[in-house]
Design a protein that fits this description.
Strand content: under 5%
Order of helices and strands: HHHHHHHHH
Radius of gyration: 24 Å
Number of domains: 2
Number of strands: 0
Distance between the termini: 91 Å
Helix content: over 70%
Largest sheet: none
Length: about 220
Amino acid sequence: MSTVMLIVLIVVVAVLVVAVAAVLYRARARVGGGRGLRRRFGPEYDRTVARHDGDTKAAERDLGERVKRHGSLRTRPLEPVAREEFTARWTVAQERFVDSPREAVTEADRLIAELAGVRGFPDAGHYEEQLDALSVHHAHHVDGYRKVHRAALDTTGAEHGAGTEKGGADTEEMRGAMVEARALFDALMAQDADGGAARTGRRTARGRSAGLTPKGAQHG
């Protein structure tokens, strides 16, 4: 075998080795990335896969893009006065649920959107982008916001005569949305990055959820 042929053979083998290594690396990265995304997003990972009709690769591309766009976001501190105002407004909304569930749900949706904007997430005028950013940093609670937003939109339709028969949220759906949304509200209100305040808030939310029973339904 000539020297030239030997060199060509070595080059070909080297190229093949590099190509195989690259394929294996990408395969490991996909597996590791998928596991990492599943750990990071928890239930939001499964929801995204379902939204992509079971296409895991498409779902992971979606979630990966969210992390790229919003992963470096740093929340802004919440001033004491604003904290008191948001707390008071949520209390009023929750108490209002007894008499006016639809108004309460609409106010809860508005409150979370405003609070997220104050904390540094995309503002309330960009719901989808705000939701994506929240899913990166509050993946275990963001679905509560999604549900309360959907319920608020449904109440608008019901007020114009759509009613629950045509997709309007019923009282039980609205109650569940309020309870789940409260967990995200508490997480956004939390001062400490370690989540201590958020855990306390979730306990409080569970304790107060019993108050979200409309009049006339206590014995239903």
